[in-house]
Amino acid sequence: MPELPEVETIKNQLAEKIIGKKIEKVKIFLPKMVKTPLNAFKRAILNSVINNIQRRAKLIIVDLSCGYSLLIHLKMTGQLITRRKQKTANSKQQNKHTHLIFYLNDGNQLLFNDLRQFGYIKLLKTSEAEKLLEKEYGPEPLENNFTIKAFKNILMRKPMGKRKSFSKNPSFRPTGRKIKQFLMDQKNIAGIGNLYADEILFFAGVMPTRKISTLTDKEIEKILAGIKKILKEAIEYSGSSVDNYLDARGKTGEYHLRLKVYGRKGQPCKKCKTKIQKIKLAGRGTHFCPKCQK
User: Fold this and answer.
1) pLDDT tens digits, 55-87
2) Pick the catalytic residue: 11, 58, 152, 264?
3) Which of 65, 122, 196, 218 is deepest in the core (most CB within 10 A)?
4) 284 is catalytic
């Protein structure tokens, strides 16, 4: 599934191409991917100008001049690809997995491809979309206010939502959840998925199966440093194309060439040469180095 770096890459590229453009026509080949009645969907978006494009967690939000926003989730295999005006309908970008096409007033097109067909588009009033996203997702890990204090507060949060200071309450036992599961929970932190959770925990030298209650201050600080460093680097390299991910230009990302553990089962660790291992954790394939991670 495209995670924060992939979705951020697509968002940035789309912003360069389609902000300020008008949606003149839309073709919907697979209606189930539009989670809004089709007539209402078309009525709202046709002749609307694209005012802004944002990312929240793993979603792309397209704000329209009509007062509505498109919430787009790529799920496992979704692709959003811009295409220049074509003389013919055929191109490498458009294929049997192209389920929706937006036609813009400059002649360019935006294609929504999805092999597994789990992705979707939802139309909401912009004000409602903002409230929904704030409610459903935790903080953005690359924002300046996502500090070590904020991270520790999230880790130590009680079920009722009250927060305790990590350092001032050493006797308070945090949740018994495993750290990888915690990182992947979108209500805790927005945008981190399976691949980057593995890479972050390798960077921090922490086993994915460790319970949060066992983590030291130093380990927590290292995990936060890994979150910031790895997500930023992955964005610089346009994300990781380990499956069928393509950016908005139809090109593969390059960060998968720099992965340390994810997808490297049985291969030597790039630090200590020990073989990378893979286990199932909460139903997800989880990679780690048994020597470098404790």
Assistant:
1) 999 999 999 999 999 999 999 999 999 998 764
2) 58
3) 196
4) yes
